Amino acid sequence: MAMRRYMPGVEIRLWARREEPLAYAKENGLADICSRELLKAVSGAELVILCTPTGTFLDLAKKFEPWLGRGAVVTDVGSTKGDAHAGAGSFLKEKGHVFIGSHPMAGSEKQGIEHAQADLFKNAVVAMTNENGAGESDLVRLSRFWLELGATVFTTTAVHHDSLVAGISHVPHILAALAARTALADQTLSVDDLRVMASTGFRDTTRVCSGSPELWTNILSQNAKAICPYLEQSIADQQHVLQLLKEGKHEALQQWLAEAKKTRETVC
Question: Three-state DSSP class for 16?
Fold first, then answer.
């Protein structure tokens, strides 16, 4: 949709495993070719974007590689970059192709093509990683693509990227899930009463955990190495605030909250 709006002369091809999203794309004029055949999507393409779960990248690359042109750039929109480069990226490089990692920091908890938005990338940051050694001209080409869609580009390493998103995306998703699960911790409370009382604070805090459990299991598992130290620190911090509450240390609790507020305002 963004390419239709900002790159009207570009031919767009979509591939999917299922017919339903392709039918939606056809009906709404989102692509020139909509097919369940990889050959029709990849053959002759200048840019191939993997939008499947990151765990499928390598198998998918092995299937479409025979039809991939020598001048093509392959990228992705996955939430983790280490596995993408180690798997599909390394395979494609061995075959003489170019893979550059991309991660648009945009989207929502809603899943499916029907929730797509043409302005999704406007003012969003797209992280780009180049662990497989793509040339400068290919990096420039991909950067220009994201810039034309209204995004800004942040170039980093896969390890740095995965550590960053562990702290600002992946662990917050776990904490949102914990907050949702904790709402039912006291089983003497009525679910109907909880529903009546739940307001914007609860909805905002837990919104992201409404995302696909299958997708997020994949993301969290693939970035476990980066996530675990953050999660261990979070558990220690929760133990600390629990002790403050038990001991009635109000000033220390206020300081703890003030530090959290300052961090939030610094990052956001």
Answer: coil
CATH code, domain carrying 15: 3.40.50.720
Number of domains in the chain: 2
Domain boundary at 127, 156, 185, which? Answer: 156
Q: Cα 181 to chain center, whole Å?
A: 23
CA 222 to centroid of chain Cα atoms: 12
43 and 112 belong to one structural domain: yes
CA atoms of 231 and 226, how far apart (whole Å): 9
Cβ–Cβ < 8 Å for 84, 54: yes
- Average pLDDT for the chain: 95
In the DSSP assignment, the letter for residue 34 is E
**Token pair 């993301």: residue:** 219
Q: What is the CATH number of the domain that holds 184?
A: 1.10.3660.10
Residue 98 has pLDDT above 80, yes or no: yes
3-state class percentages of the chain: helix first, strand second, coil last, to nearest 5:
60, 10, 30
What's the predicted TM-score (pTM) here? Answer: 0.91
Please compute the mean of the pLDDT values over residues 168-182 and round it to a whole number: 96
User: Is the domain of 104 the same as that of 232?
Assistant: no
CA atoms within 13 A on the CB side of 147: 9
